[in-house]
Write a structure and sequence with these properties.
single chain; 105 residues; elongated
């Protein structure tokens, strides 16, 4: 379970990302088709980062099963993919929030 203070930080990150998007592209989308295209692109980028994270997780497990030493580089790479996943997830949420706020007006 995510602690409340972490949820607040995540919400702040999402809001900041949404505001950056609005600063670049304006408040709303030109159509639902545009919204879907942008959302799909961001979800695909998140999916790609999750894929690579899972790939390294599988490699890590293979090493553990063989009683090999855990490579610090693998851990560093996995941490990097976690950061990228968090960033992409924030972008997905920001796209959704931008759309939601646009239809509320």
């Amino acid at each position: 379970m995510i602690r409340d203070e972490i949820k607040k930080m995540v919400n702040d990150i999402i809001t900041n990302e949404k505001n950056n998007i609005i600063g670049k592209y304006g408040k709303g989308y030109n159509s639902d088709h545009e919204f879907y295209g942008v959302l799909k692109e961001e979800v695909e980028e998140l999916d790609e980062d999750v894929f690579y994270l899972k790939t390294h997780l599988s490699e890590l497990w293979d090493n553990i099963k063989q009683d090999d030493k855990i490579d610090n580089q693998t851990i560093t790479i996995m941490l990097s993919y976690c950061q990228m996943c968090m960033g992409e997830a924030a972008q997905v949420a920001a796209v959704l929030l931008r759309y939601f706020e646009g239809i509320q007006q």
